[in-house]
Write a structure and sequence with these properties.
Number of strands: 6
Order of helices and strands: EEEEEE
Largest sheet: 6 strands, antiparallel
Number of domains: 1
Strand content: over 45%
Structural class: mainly beta
Shape: elongated
Oligomer: single chain
Helix content: under 10%
Distance between the termini: 40 Å
Radius of gyration: 17 Å
């Protein structure tokens, strides 16, 4: 299964009420999905998440998405959890 998705993301201002600052975000992605066993189809993938800002610009990225990929023969819709680390590039 392969896909090429693009979309928009909206996020809050930096939340500073906790010991470490962070941001909430929501996104909507869309694009084609294809495989060797089925035709290309359009999918939609909304998601929400949180970026936890650590020291020196490093951030931990938590994300939950759900991909809607219905088909007449087989429903390929699925959910996804993602955990990532973002490192700053360049100098301050």
């Amino acid at each position: 299964m392969r896909s090429a998705l693009a979309g928009v993301q909206v996020r809050t201002r930096l939340i500073r009420s906790h010991p470490r600052p962070g941001r909430l975000f929501a996104q909507m992605l869309a694009g084609p999905q294809w495989s060797d066993i089925g035709p290309m189809r359009r999918v939609f993938q909304p998601g929400v998440g949180f970026d936890d800002c650590l020291r020196n610009g490093v951030a931990v990225h938590f994300e939950y998405d759900y991909r809607f990929a219905p088909d007449e023969k087989r429903d390929l819709s699925t959910m996804r959890f993602f955990l990532g680390i973002a490192l700053p590039l360049g100098s301050r």
